Q: What sequence folds into this?
């Protein structure tokens, strides 16, 4: 009985703070974990947005980060110093979609068949499904987007790992929530 009373008193004083914490945490883990490492951003953000680790599973990053794969990275040479290659691979593996507690990462991971090792985020079933409405007029024929790989042209809060629809602003068209 004493314990129950104590609990009630504690809840009375800290209930609001707890609730705020709870909701801000829910919000925080909604997207994907942000990547802030400078080596990563400099090395992998040169030709396109430096994709977060939580957008692909571990096995995908392990394959992509093999030295011979980097020499022919989607037809481009993305070679790295050996030391940097290992450091970046480890970073990607550590926060990969299949080990993440972030909601979008979990959804991406769950959508990929176990026997598949996709190297493209844009070809994972979850991402494909979410962009069904992103037809050529918004992407391919939109000179400020050109390809779905340019996530950051539409997802304006992507640096923070946030993908909510009210943060999607398609260049030349406007906020998705107002177009839809
Ligand atoms: C020299 C330029 C260059 C560098 C450096 C580079 N990439 Fe890429 N990357 C490309 C090109 C080109 C594509 C394919 C783009 C396309 O399909 O239009 C690509 C595609 C990708 C994709 C797949 C995008 C999709 O379709 O979902 C991932 C993931 C990726 N790169 C990760 C990385 C990582 C990780 C690094 C750092 C180790 C890196 N890239 C460094 C040029 C580069
Ligand atoms: C042409 C603009 C555009 C590009 C480029 C784009 N997206 Fe999107 N994305 C959207 C729109 C629009 C939605 C749908 C929002 C909705 O209605 O739920 C969306 C939805 C999403 C969602 C689901 C968010 C949610 O809360 O349901 C994720 C995750 C996402 N995109 C990730 C990516 C990634 C990763 C890339 C790059 C590989 C990318 N997007 C490229 C426009 C874009």
A:
């Amino acid at each position: 009985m004493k314990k129950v009373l104590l609990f009630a008193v504690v809840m009375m004083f800290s209930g609001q703070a707890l609730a705020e914490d709870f909701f801000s945490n829910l919000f925080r883990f909604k997207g994907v974990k942000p990547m802030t490492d400078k080596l990563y951003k400099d090395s992998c953000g040169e030709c396109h947005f430096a994709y977060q680790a939580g957008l692909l599973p571990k096995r995908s990053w392990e394959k992509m980060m093999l030295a011979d794969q980097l020499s022919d990275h989607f037809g481009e040479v993305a070679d790295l110093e050996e030391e940097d290659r290992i450091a970046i691979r480890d970073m990607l593996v550590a926060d990969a979609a299949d080990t993440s507690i972030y909601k979008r990462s979990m959804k991406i991971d769950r959508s990929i068949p176990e026997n598949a090792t996709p190297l493209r985020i844009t070809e994972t079933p979850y991402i494909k499904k979410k962009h069904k409405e992103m037809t050529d007029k918004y992407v391919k024929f939109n000179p400020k987007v050109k390809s779905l790989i340019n996530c950051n042209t539409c997802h304006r809060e992507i640096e923070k790992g946030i993908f909510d629809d009210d943060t999607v602003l398609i260049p030349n068209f406007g906020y998705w929530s107002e177009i839809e």
The chain has two domains: 32-118, 131-180.
